[in-house]
Design goal:
This protein has about 280 residues and is mostly helical. Helices cover about 70% and strands about 0% of the residues.
Length: about 280
């Protein structure tokens, strides 16, 4: 009698699983260590940090540092400025990427590929190479030490990546969708707003989340284009807390924790679309 065929699933090699879990654990520690350090620092006094360092459980943990930075520094101004820069720059750069991505993915016209390369060329230039020309331009325009330079620069640089991603995403959509809508009498705006944009919500969520995070966390342009506290964003404000001869480690850590809250909230809000946008196209149906 032939032996019954075993239906048990194959046993996964232990060493492979152990290596994978070990790698994940190491990466988790590497990513979590700076966050833990900042949170611990925000709960200590500067004297305790100087005496014992950062990596220990605070003896007298308190929220005094959070109260101090909120009441004794222009943190509210920094946060408002960050929102005034991040929200319009994110909305306009993503909206512009949708429009340009639709044009470059759905239409064929002379020098189209060349124009596409011109639009995305901003991705290939390091920001440091543009510092001096942009600083001179902003100074000549008379808008130095305002929010406008940061908004304009983030829109211009963000348009490159949003156009590239939206063009690639829209190119993967079936062309029959647009053709059927045109036959039914829809114009290009109708096709874009009623068909393409709803189908692109996962990609838009990914772009909006990444753009918001990049712009909110930017330190270079606020450092270059601002001087007074009235125009500084939250990242430049954290740097402004240090004095000439000392560094307010605990106050800077507390402000850093508060500054991270908006980006966490944005990710939580768009999490469902964000995950589906990242995994889109990874599985064939």
């Amino acid at each position: 009698m032939a032996s019954a065929r075993s239906t048990d699933p194959p046993v996964r090699p232990f060493h492979r699983s152990a290596v994978l879990h070990g790698f994940i654990l190491v990466m988790l520690i590497l990513y979590a260590a700076p966050i833990i350090g900042v949170v611990l620092t925000s709960l200590m006094s500067n004297g305790e940090i100087a005496a014992r360092g950062v990596w220990h459980i605070p003896e007298n943990a308190s929220l005094d540092n959070f109260v101090e930075v909120w009441t004794n520094s222009p943190m509210a101004t920094y946060l408002i400025n960050s929102f005034l820069v991040t929200i319009p720059a994110t909305v306009i750069s993503v909206a512009g990427g949708v429009l340009l991505g639709y044009v470059f993915s759905q239409f064929r016209f002379p020098f189209g590929e060349l124009l596409f390369l011109v639009v995305i060329a901003g991705m290939f230039f390091p920001p440091q190479a543009m510092l001096i020309p942009l600083f001179q331009l902003i100074n000549d325009m008379g808008i130095y030490d305002t929010l406008y330079p940061m908004i304009l620069v983030h829109i211009a640089l963000g348009m490159s990546i949003t156009t590239l991603l939206m063009r690639n995403f829209m190119s993967a959509l079936p062309s029959s969708l647009r053709e059927a809508a045109i036959v039914d009498g829809a114009g290009e705006w109708g096709v874009l707003l009623r068909i393409i944009v709803p189908l692109s919500l996962p990609a838009l969520a990914v772009l909006a989340t990444l753009q918001f995070t990049w712009i909110w966390n930017d330190f270079l342009w606020p450092l270059v284009f601002t001087r007074s506290n009235d125009a500084k964003t939250i990242m430049a404000g954290i740097n402004a807390l240090q004095g000439q001869y000392n560094v307010a480690w605990s106050a800077q850590a507390a402000m850093s924790v508060i500054a991270s809250i908006p980006t966490i909230v944005v990710f939580i809000v768009f999490q469902r679309y964000f995950i589906s946008g990242l995994t889109m196209g990874s599985v064939k149906e």
